[in-house]
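Now for a typical sample entry:
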Amino acid sequence: MGAAVLSDLVAEVVIPFSAAVGIAFALVQWLLVSKVKLTPEHQAAAAAAESKNGSGDYLIEEEEGLNDHNVVVKCAEIQNAISEGATSFLFTEYQYVGIFMVAFAVLIFLFLGSVEGFSTKSQPCTYSKDKMCKPALANAIFSTLSFLLGAITSVVSGFLGMKIATYANARTTLEARRGVGKAFIAAFRSGAVMGFLLAANGLLVLYIAINLFKLYYGDDWEGLFEAITGYGLGGSSMALFGRVGGGIYTKAADVGADLVGRSRGTFPRMILENPAVIADNVGDNVGDIAGMGSDLFGSYAESSCAALVVASISSFGVNHDLTGMLYPLLISSMGIIVCLLTTLFATDFFEIKAVKEIEPALKRQLIISTALMTVGIAIVSWLALPSSFTIYNFGVQKTVKNWELFFCVAIGLWAGLVIGFVTEYYTSNAYSPVQDVADSCRTGAATNVIFGLALGYKSVIIPIFAIAVSIFVSFSFAAMYGIAVAALGMLSTIATGLAIDAYGPISDNAGGIAEMAGMSHRIRERTDALDAAGNTTAAIGKGFAIGSAALVSLALFGAFVSRAAISTVDVLTPKVFIGLIVGAMLPYWFSAMTMKSVGSAALKMVEEVRRQFNTIPGLMEGTTKPDYATCVKISTDASIKEMIPPGALVMLTPLIVGTFFGVETLSGVLAGSLVSGVQIAISASNTGGAWDNAKKYIEAGASEHARTLGPKGSDAHKAAVIGDTIGDPLKDTSGPSLNILIKLMAVESLVFAPFFATHGGLLFKIF
């Protein structure tokens, strides 16, 4: 079979080194962003320094004779209010999530420990009965520890992302006075801080956990990597609450602020007199930043765990080939280096000088990272893998060549790019689908809604084909391991993907701050251009997250079927079919819960804002400040209360089905939820994104066609705003949360598989 070129020692050095490089690069980017000061004295000094350097890059405020001191102070005040609101929400959320984390950790220990009656004796290995493995009690303890480790890493990833975003938003606004290029770099660098910190921390913590667990497990790699799957479960369970809670918060505030603005005639939503405006800006950070960070960390952790579990029972694990075993982590290490080079193209190699260059620059990031990563995957596959090896494939060992595994990872990577660009085509107002939706607003809101829904359904077609081709090719080459590394390929450029994704909410906040601080129209045009590009890239990010979730879920499903000793999943068996049909229903039930939660919370927000307008004298005139804190509290309380039922639905379903109906029915539930969940997630995200950009298309009036539909306040614009408001919870709450549903149920089933295989199916045993 041959040996890998890369020695075990070099592999063990390369992984932490790459993670350290990623963290160092994130800190450098953060230091560069921090040079933009939020004090008037520093701003004046910076302006003077610029003019001494001969660049002539004067501040617009100075050209227009505005008071620079007041603008900077106001920006700092607004940023502080947003940062305090976001921190307050996350701390409240984490208190509740912390209780859940401890309770679920106890549950994992009790369920897995009871498999062998809490015995401390060694037991025959699951896949190699002639060998002895560590006791089930050890699996229970280490699975619990890895769950807590994954949960804490996920929480820290989300929190750091939020702190970075709230630190950068006002700085992006102030940089917009020096040109659109400067503002773009400030926003993108801040996104890169989050992207690299998350990718590097996720890799480093997983690597350290494997090495610490190895001290106890020794040569029992089967038990070691089965225990490591708890890391993915911890990451995704926190992501679920972050996504659902943050999504409800952000859309309750957003929809509330929108509705209030319209109920007051032409009253703009993004001015300081609107009491919901701070809650709206806080929502961008807790939903789109903290939620997305935890979500993609969960995907990364789960795809790594799925690949490691399958590898541990293949020739890598059986022969104790550490370099081959760590192949998924080496791919992620290469991803960090590739993304670092890619980021320099946006921040150092090419300077943006005009508004129209923003979106191409962001898309260029995706293309460059994918192209470079393809070369990187080839290098890792050549160095880290033997020329041929065997992969476990439902009871038999399948011989695989190293070039076949390269194709598995590469096809996942390129499928991600295809999904990203198809998503952009259906959600960007530069293309005909969104322009058709905008055009439909001529005849009112009803036709806008019909066209938007049709666009969402149609946008599912190509991504599903891309996922299907990835699954077929990767499974043909390397069975379930191929699918797991294809998912990892899609997520290998996670640092760049997150940088692009976080850029959107930072730019959105920057535009809001510019408007609230009363900055000039020219600056708001620049921040609006940054925001418009951010909307499209956010949709691309959601496409990546959903596509990778489908592959991750299928890989975990394969690992679960193997671990639960199910020879075949036969849909003609009643046990499986009832699971299949119930599983297909779950995404609809989950979406109904999250949509209604946003509606209820938005209703409370509107009532509170109306109360303030009616009872606080001088609020409409701008002579009195509104009570922002109450609005922030309404969004916080509503999201905390409303995130529990959907979270419970996802977390309890595998436990109930596996315990009472057994592993066959649970396999049906997982397959059903995967198949229907992916379709709903893509259509919901794209429908909402299209409605949002159709509204912006009319407002911008950049083309002759758009001008015939506008301006703001026209009948067509009012119809577009209704579509946008309906689409908000679709694209930012229900759609993105569904990809966590399909992943989380699969990884939870895998973690609890030993219990379900031994004690599951109580109802069928009784009857």
About this structure: Residues 8-36+69-95+143-766 form one domain.
